[in-house]
Amino acid sequence: MYTQRISGWLSGLLLAVAVLLLSSCSRQAPAPRYRIGFSQCSTNGPWRQAMLAGMERELSFHPEVALRMLNANDNSQVQQQQIRQLLREGVDLLIVSPYEAGPVTPAVEEAIAQGVPVVLLDRRTASARYTAYVGGNNLEIGKTAARYAASLLRQRGYVAEVLGTPGSSATAERHQGFVQALAAYPSIRSVGQVEGDWTVNTVKPALRTLLKAHPEVSLLFAHNDGMARGAAEVCRELGRERQIKIIGVDGLAGANEGLDLVRRGLLDASILYAPGGEEAMRTALSILRRQPYRRENTLGTLVIDSTNVRTLQQQTDKMASQQQDILRQQGLLQSLRATYASQRTVLYGLLATLLGAILLGGVAWRSARKNRQINQQLARQNAEIDAINHQLVSQNEEIRQQRNQLETLAAQARTDTEAKLRFFTNFSHELRTPLTLILGPVEELLTSSSDLTSTQRHDLGLVRRNTQRLLQLVNQLLDFRKIEVGKMAVRATEGNLVTFVREIVDAFERPARQRSVELRFQAPEAELKGWFDGNILDKVFFNLLSNALKFTPDQGVITISVEATPDGRHLCVSVADTGRGISDQDRAHIFEWFYQGDQSAVAKGSGMGLALAQGLTRLHQGQLTFSSQPGQGSTFVVTLPRELPEALRSTEPVSPTVFALDEPESLPELASPDPTTSPESGLDTLVLVIEDNPEVNSFLARKLRPHFRVQTATDGASGLRMATDLIPDLVVCDVMMPGLSGLEVVAQLKADWRTSHIPVVLLTARNAPEQQVEGVQAGADVYLTKPFNPAFLLESVRTLLGNRARQREHFRRELLVDMEATPASDPDQKFLTDLTAVVEAQLAQPTLNVEDVARGLGISRMQLYRKIKAVLGTGVSDFIQGRRLAKARELLVDDTLSITDVAYELGFSSPSYFSTSFKARYQISPSEFRALHSTPHA
C-alpha cells in the first residue's frame, strides 16, 4: 500500500516534470531566422562602406537575421550572375544596389516572378517591378546645391560643375537638378563641366585646364566630396583657393570626408546624401514580418556649412560613441544568452535525471531559481538598452530644434536685409523733393531773369550742374536697388551696335575737346547687328567713357572700338585710355559697390559707376573685364552675346534715356505755346495744390499765384474734400503722401461726376516707367517727376486749361444738336444728360431756379455752378434759358399750339418776354420761325 502511494506520488511528480519540460521548451523556442541577400554594385569608396556599416548596425539589433553580401566590382554582368546565385541559395529577401539600371533589370524581375521581395537601394532599375525603393533624391540634391550656390554668390557669378561617372543615374540627375534650379538666377552662368569617376585625382588635369580657360569662375559644384577635395587641391595649386567657393555632396563623417573638409574650410559646403543602409534594412524587416511599409522611401538632405558643421560633427561623434556602447552591451547580452542557454541545457539534464531520483527535485528547484536570476539580469540589461534608445531619440529632437533655429535666424536675416534695402530706396526717393526746391528756382532764375551778372549766372549754372549730378547719383542708387532685388528687366530690340555706340561717343566730343583729349572711334564694319537693350547699355558705355575721361590727362587719347568676335557670336566694345592705370591694390575691388580706391590725383567719385556698369552688363548676359598697366592706362572690354533668349526680347522699340556719370541730365525743353489755344487765365481760374511737403507746397503756390487763383492742401484727404467743395479748374497733386496717396486722390476725382472734368497734374519722385504708367492709368493728365522745371509746369497747366476750353466748346455744340442722342460715354457726358433731364422735367415752372436744379442733382448750389461753368463755360440760368428756347423750337413746329401756349408751356412769364428771348437767341421771331418751318396745307 505504501509502495503504491510512493509509486503514485512519483508518477504524479514525473508527470509534473514532463509538463514543466514541455512548457519550458515551448517558451524558449528560437525565433524564426531570415536570410537576406545583398547585391552591392561596389564596395569601393567611403560612401559605399558607410552603407554596409549602416546595415550591420541595424542587424546588430536583429540576431535572427543573416545577411549575405556579394560585391559586383562595378560590373553589370557580374551583378546579374550574383543576383541569380542568391536566388538559387534560397534567400528570403533581396536588396539590390544596381550599377547600371538596364542590365540589372531582368535579374530583378526574375526575383519578383519567383515571389522573392526586392528592395532597391540608392539606384533604380529600368522597370517598376520591385517591392520597395530606399535612396536619396539626386534631382533635389542638385537643386539644393544650386540654391545654396546662388546664396553664396549673391545671385550673380560664374560656376563650373565636376560630374561623376558618365552614364550614372546619380550623375545625370544631380546635373539636371543643378541646371534646373540655376535657371531661376539669370545672373549666374555655367561655364562648363569636368567628368570624373567619384575619386580625388582623376578630375585634376581637366579641372586645371578649365580654370585656366575661365578665370572668372567663382564657384565649383562637385558631385561628391572626394572630387570636391581634388578640386580644392587644384585651386590651392593655382593660388585661387580664396576666390573660388566649392560645394560637395555626401557629408560623411571621418578623416578627409565631407564633415571634416567643411570644418577645415577646404569646402564651403557639402550636401548631405545619406547612404541609407539602416533604412533599407528596416524596410526589409517590415516586409519579411508582413508589417506595414512604404514602397517609396526618399531620404532627406540638408546643407552642411560653417554654421552647422561643428554641431553635426559633435552629434556624429557622440552617436558613434553610443553605438560602441550599444555593441558592448549587445556583446554582454549575447554572452549572458549563451550562459543562459548552457545552464538551461544543464537544467534539462538534471530534470531528466530527476525521472530516476526524487532527490534531483532540489537540484531542479535551485536551477529554476538560477533561471529567475538570469531573467532579472536580462530585464535590467533590456532596461539599459531602452534608456540608450530614449537618449538617442532625445538627441535627434535636439538636432531638429537646432535646425529649426537656424532656419528662423536665416529668415530673420532675409527680413532685415529687405528692410534695409527698402529704407535705402525710400531715402533715395525722398532726396528728389529737396532737389526740386533747389533746381526749380535755379532753372527759373536762369531762364527768366535778364538782369543777372555774368558771375551770378556762372554761379547759378554751377549750382544747376551739381544739382543734376546729385540727381544722377540718386538715379544710380535706384538702379543699384533694382539690380539687387531683380526688378530691372532686359527689353532688347535688334539694332546696329556701331551706330548706338557712335552716338554715345559724340556726346563726349565737347568735354573731351575742352581738355584737348582725343577721342578715337574705330569700327572695322559699318554695321554690326545684335539684340540689345539701349536703356541698359547706354548707362554702361556712358559710365565707362566718363570714367576714362576723368582719369585721362590733358592731351591724352581715348580709343573706343566696336567689333565682333572671330566666331561671330559675340560683340565687343572696348574703351582704352592713356591715364595713370589701376594699382594692384585697387584691381581686386574695382567692381565693388561704393569702392573709391586711391583718387588723390583726381576728383573723387561715388564709387558706383564701374559697379553699376558691371551689374548691368551681367544683367544683359554679358561680361565686363579690364586690363591695366600703371602709368600707361587702362582698357575696359564689354562682351555681349549677339543673340538673347526670347524672354529678354521686346517687339516694341525702346527709347534709351541718355545717362552719364559726370555729364548733367538735360531737362525737357519747353514747348512753344499754341497761339490758337485760349486757356482760362487770370484770377478767374482756380488751381488746387495738394502737397504734404510744406516747402514744396509753398513753392508751387508762389509760382502759380501770379497767373491763377490758388488754394492749397497738405494731405490727400483734405485735398479731396476741397476739390469736391470748390470744384477747381485744375489740380496739382503729389503722389507719395501720408494717408490718401496721390493715385487714390486722382482715382476718386475721376470717379466722381462732380470732379471728373478737372485736369490733374501728378508730381512725384518715382520715375520708373511702370510707375508712370500706373499714374496715367489712374487718370492723371500729366505726370512730372521731381525735380521739375517750374516753367515747364506752368506751360503744362496752361495747355491743360486750353484743352479744357476746347472740350467745353465741344460739349456746347453737342448740347445744341441733340442731347438725348448722345450716349453717356464718360462722367461729364453723364452729368450733362442728368442735368438736362432735371431741367426739362421742370421747364413748365416759371420759378425754376439754381436751387431747384441743384436739389434735383443732390449737390450744392456752388458745386453746380462751378461744374456747369467748367464743362460748358456758362451759368446755370443761361443753361435753363437755353433748354427752354431749344424746346420751344420743337413745339413751334407743331401748329396745334399757339405761340402763347408754347410760352406758358415752357415757363415764360409772358408771351412778349418769350418772343424777345427767342429773337435774341435765334435772330428771328417765333411767328417767323413757325412760318418758315410749317408745312403748307393742301
UniProtKB/TrEMBL annotation:
Q: Where is the signal peptide?
A: none
The source's superkingdom equals Bacteria
Species of the source: Hymenobacter guriensis
Q: Which UniProt keywords apply?
A: Coiled coil, DNA-binding, Membrane, Phosphoprotein, Transcription, Transcription regulation, Transmembrane, Transmembrane helix
- What PANTHER family would the database entry show? HYBRID SIGNAL TRANSDUCTION HISTIDINE KINASE C, TWO-COMPONENT HISTIDINE KINASE
> Which residues are reported to carry the modification 4-aspartylphosphate?
D734
> Per its UniProt record, what SUPFAM superfamilies does this chain match?
ATPase domain of HSP90 chaperone/DNA topoisomerase II/histidine kinase, CheY-like, Homeodomain-like, Homodimeric domain of signal transducing histidine kinase, Periplasmic binding protein-like I
The EC number of this protein is: 2.7.13.3
Give the protein name, as stated in the record: histidine kinase
Q: Which InterPro entries match?
A: CheY-like_superfamily, HATPase_C_sf, HATPase_dom, His_kinase_dom, HisK_dim/P_dom, HisK_dim/P_sf, Homeodomain-like_sf, HTH_AraC
